[in-house]
């Protein structure tokens, strides 16, 4: 009975602690744009934007076990979908979001077919090729995409009733979309789809024996991942107000994958930490060395990988486990004499001096003359 009550008490304390942390984070997130400069609000907006893209990549790589180096291409597809709709057709900003999400979902379904027969480095090269040839293709479709000059579109404008500045309104809109996207990713991972993705990642043969349809879930992993990237690209168009093919080179895909690894593969908080890494570390590298910011950026990634091999999301658990497993030092005797060695005390007392010199008890004649148990009877000659 006491064990059950203790378990309920622990669970209740864990829920209260989680609710308290959530409330504090929500308060900070909501009040942050009112106390920060416009550029800092823009940086927070970009962190949320990248977190959406990394949440989709986490579904594919972290939980699906498939490597993709072409995530920047899906990001570009969503960005250009929104830009073309705003520039050519004059639709509203909110109308571009479901179109970009649905279009990238279908694109991911079609691109997920090679994932059925490829894995590892072969799949990575195929996805990288998509990221490499998309920017030149966008340049050749000049009547639609604007070619090398790109497209300039209007940004989000705050309504009069909100009383917010443009950067604040954009921040709250992106925050709402990011919250819905991250909640959707969390629910997906907690559903049958998430469990099937984990099973495929751990052991495909065992997952197939258990009834998991490999072709379906591998294709759906690409589709969901592409949809999240398309949503992030649409938000990018809203925030920046300009798209060009040079903004979505293959370096973007590699940067997104590196950010996810640094943030934490297979972690729900990894995309947020990875988004902060993508946004703040390059600017920090530029401040440290204006001549070679790329070198500083690479060294920072290497340092993080040495300190936190499981990513920044797993660093607190790693530090806590290292602290709890550290042996405690016991205080010595107050008079300064050396402590007794347990191994020495465990040895036979005959080696300790006084115990060896102790006289042995006298033998009992009756006992000495007694016949041993099981001995044959003595004869008269004996």
Question: Descriptors for this entry?
Answer:
Branched-chain amino acid ABC transporter permease; transmembrane helix; two-stranded antiparallel ribbon; 2 strands; 1% strand; globular; 16 helices; membrane; ABC_transp_permease; cell membrane; 382 residues; mainly alpha
How widely separated are the two ends? 72 Å
Query: Gyration radius, to the nearest Å?
Result: 33 Å
Shape: globular
Helix-and-strand structural type: mainly alpha
- The percent range for strand residues is under 5%
The beta-strand count equals: 2
Which sheet architecture does the biggest sheet show?
2 strands, antiparallel
Q: Mean pLDDT, nearest integer? A: 78
SSE string = HHHHHHEHHHHEHHHHHH
What fraction, in percent, of the residue positions are helical? Answer: 55-70%
Give the count of helical stretches.
Answer: 16
* Unreliable residue runs: 327-376
What does this 3D model show about the protein?
Residues 354-370 have a biased composition (Low complexity). It comes from Streptomyces albidocamelliae. The chain crosses the membrane at residues 18-36, 42-61, 68-86, 92-113, 120-138, 169-189, 220-243, 249-282, 294-317. Keywords: Cell membrane, Membrane, Transmembrane, Transmembrane helix. Residues 327-382 are annotated as: Disordered. This protein is an all-alpha fold and 382 residues long. It has a domain at 45-251. Helix content is 68%, strand content 1%. It is built from 16 helices and 2 strands. Strands 1-2 form a two-stranded antiparallel ribbon. Helix 3 runs antiparallel to helix 4 (93-111) and helix 3 (71-88) crosses helix 10. The longest helix is centred in the N-terminal third of the chain and has 34 residues, at 2-35. The protein is globular and about 55 Å long. The termini are far apart. 34% of the residues are buried. Residues 327-376 have low confidence and may be disordered.
